[in-house]
Amino acid sequence: MKLFRKNKKRTWLDKTINTLLIIVIFFIVLPQSFELPVRGMKKSDYNQNSYWHYPWGTSGTHKGVDIFGKEGTDIIAPVRGFTFKTGSGGKAGNYVIILGPKLRFHYFAHLKSIHTKVGDWNSIGDKIGTLGATGNAAGKPPHLHYAIVTWIPYFWRIDQEPQGYRKMFFLNPIDYLNECYP
Ligand SMILES: [Zn+2]
Fold it and tell me: Is residue 34 part of a domain?
């Protein structure tokens, strides 16, 4: 009896099942290990209350955290995951989006330069860009705007704050940053 049929052609169904398995294992089962996204950053480089700060320009509320630092400092992948999108322009300036564990997008904006391309696999700590002041950060102190967005809505996080319903998609990155400090 042959256990493996070596000459079996892989059908589109096999490939789809394999892809789904990879998605389930990497993005849903795998725990989210986390490292700080700006190399050498200190706890005083970000404001504890900057998440959902209101009012906040044309965005209404501030759906992430601003991490201030020296222009050109390495921005590294805080989680493992694929580079999902990169681009430049608008309020973000140069930006990178990584799709990581638990089907969460990690969003990095105002970069000086981008050091990754769509489809790249990033291990934790891989350089993806450098800290800058592009987009609507121009003329302001250089900083990384960092946000964590979930594909799967977390309805229980909705509250009465302005745009509070959107909290089902935007997690508070400060919770994860703080855990990296003793
Ligand atoms: Zn910001």
Answer: no
pLDDT, tens digit (0-9, with 9 covering 90-100), for 2-29: 555 555 677 888 888 888 887 777 777 7
Residue 120 inside a domain? The answer is yes
**Which amino acid, residue 78?**
P
Give the residue carrying structure tokens 């991490």: 67
CATH number at residue 164: 2.70.70.10
Provide CB contacts within 8 A for 102, sequence distance 6+.
27, 28, 32, 150, 152
Which residues are in the CB-under-5-Å shell of ion ligand 1? 66, 145
Q: Which residues contact 92 (CB under 8 A, 6 or more apart)?
A: 109, 110, 134, 135, 145
| Distance from the alpha carbon of residue 26 to the mean position of ligand 1, in angstroms | 28
Dihedral pair phi/psi, residue 150, rounded to 5°: -105, 140
pTM score: 0.86
Q: Is residue 14 part of a domain?
A: no
Residue 103 has pLDDT above 60, yes or no: yes
* Nearest CA-CA partner of 172 in 154, 182, 181, 160: 154
Q: What gap in Å lies between CA 168 and CA 158, rounded to an integer?
A: 6
- Separation of 52 CA from ligand 1 center, angstroms? 10
Distance CA(157)–CA(6), nearest Å, equals 50
